[in-house]
Amino acid sequence: MTVQGGRIAAVTAPGNGSGTGAADATTADCDGLIMLPALVDLHTHLREPGDTASETIASGTRAAAHGGYSDVLAMANCVPVTDSPERVRHIIERAARTASCRVHPVGAVTKGLAGRELAPLDAMAAAGALMFSDDGVCVDDPTLLVQALEAARRTGTLVAQHAQCPRLAERGQVNAGAAAHATGLPPWPATGEEAIVARDVVLAGATGGRLHICHVSTAGTVEIVRWAKSRGWPVTAEVTPHHLLLTDLLTHDTDPLHKVNPPLRSAEDVAALRAALGDGTIDAVATDHAPHTASSKDRHWCEAPFGMLGLETALPVVAEALGAGGEPDWGLVATVMSAGPARIAGLADVAGRPLRAGEPATFTLVDPRADWRVDRTESISASDNTPFHGMTFRHRVVATMVEGCVTADIDHRLGSRRRACGR
Ligand SMILES: [Zn+2]
Questions:
Q1: What's the pLDDT at 422?
Q2: Dist. CA 188 → ligand 1 center (Å)
Q3: Which of 10, 60, 384, 394: CA 20 to 30 A from 46?
Q4: Hey, which residues are catalytic here?
Q5: Distances in Å between the alpha carbon of 212 and those of 7, 101, 216, 350?
């Protein structure tokens, strides 16, 4: 692979030449590595402004770059909430100064995420918000959601819903059924997700506004999304890496590292989510990267916040979940982690592009024989609340390049360009 002027100049097969020979060109030796278009995350919590002890735009995007990402969408539940064009512009400006990948703000659907009054969606879209979401809480009022979907249609954006019925999943802590019985903790039932998704896809169909379902976690939700798509309604869906690999059996130990919202589900749900990713019912993998300081997370289960890290481990986890111990379908991985989310976010002209001459040099390199043991003390994120600590993964991201700039390079394969880009 030869890179020149931020673009791919040539892609050569192993042992077939060494690039253009131009003085300003860089040739990356990718032999033995898997090369993918750099990843796009639709669902990242960067915590800045507000909770910079758990993450900042700088630390979170460094973690993203080390996970293979070129682009992340930054959720709105900061303090203050991203619910005005000024807040959207603030995040764009802050990211321009400190980020290691491209950051795209998500605007809140309702002011202060309070669920009572619509935020100025048109003005936020004009300021650069690509998507709207109250993630962390559900937009429960259907009349507000209808207004938001109509604004999304007007502005060419979309609404991402955290599907959690406040009444059905009230106080829910772990998956209903065996996990709730084993732990005695309040159940978070599948119906709490599915009832909202069923309602919302109907509203998307009626308004024509694009709806995206965040972190799908149940087999029933997969069926509803499949049905909505069969009717031609403008609905897309994402699944997290952790919901593709981990089950609710882990929550029996009540270790808060396994506390996440929606909760880890059954093995049957995990199988349905994997199948849905394979058949296109679910469009994208999104991390729901949710950093928390050790002091906030290391408490009794009920007092600890929901959420786990995701950016640094997403690619190996997805490869493991889809590869069943062998190599996954890398074309599928590229679709669900790069081209698919880029298309949903409206970034398809700059992200998720095919790797051929003339395209931006925006890619990630994966070592397929890394046997990488995840160690939370080596976390690039400012937090270390990963549920994958101690697990060994066959694959590991070793380098990421964005438009010719090296943003991560653990093996120093691309080292010469790092200096040129000043990162
Ligand atoms: Zn959420």
A1: 43
A2: 14
A3: 394
A4: 288
A5: 32, 23, 10, 21
Q: Under a CB-based contact definition with an 8 Å cutoff, are residues 363 and 401 in contact? A: yes
pLDDT at 27: 76
Tell me how many degrees the CA angle 117-123-125 measures, rounded to the nearest 5: 105
Backbone angles phi, psi at 291, to 5 degrees: -70, 145
CATH code assigned at 290: 3.20.20.140
Q: Which segments of the chain have a pLDDT < 50?
A: 19, 418-420, 422-423
How many whole angstroms from 418 Cα to the centroid of ligand 1? 35
Question: Which residue positions form the known binding site for substrate?
Answer: 45-47, 77, 261, 292, 306-307
Strand 102-107 relative to strand 131-132: parallel, antiparallel, unpaired? parallel
Longest Cα separation, the chain: 66
Can you read off the two tokens belonging to residue 291? 């950093």
Annotated binding-site members: 43, 45-47, 77, 135, 162, 215, 261, 288, 292, 306-307
pLDDT of residue 347: 98
Residue 150 lies in a domain: yes
For residue 323, the SS3 value is helix
pLDDT digits (tens, 9 = 90+) for 227-246: 999 999 999 999 999 999 99
Question: For tokens 């192993």, what's the residue?
Answer: 14
- What letter would DSSP give residue 5? T
Residue 70 belongs to domain spanning:
39-355
pLDDT given at position 320: 97
How far is it, in rounded angstroms, from Cα 218 to Cα 269?
A: 5
Whether 28 is covered by a domain: the verdict is no
| Ligand 1 centroid from CA 177, angstroms | 22
Rounded distance between C-alpha atoms, residue 343 and residue 238, angstroms: 13
Number of domains comprising the chain:
1
